[in-house]
Amino acid sequence: MPFTKLISSKRLCRYVCRHMARKATPLREKRKAFETSPLMIGVFRKGMPHFYQRLKHLYISSHIHTVMLFTWTDYKTIFLPITSFASATAPVHSLSNLMQGCIWIWFHLILCNVSNQARAKEEDAVNRPWRPIPSGRITVRQAVVLRWFLVIFCATWSATYGAGTVMATLGLVTVTVLYDEAGFSNGPFTKNLCNVGGYTAFEVGATRIMGTAATSLPSAAT
Question: Percent of the chain beyond pLDDT 90?
Answer without folding.
Answer: 33
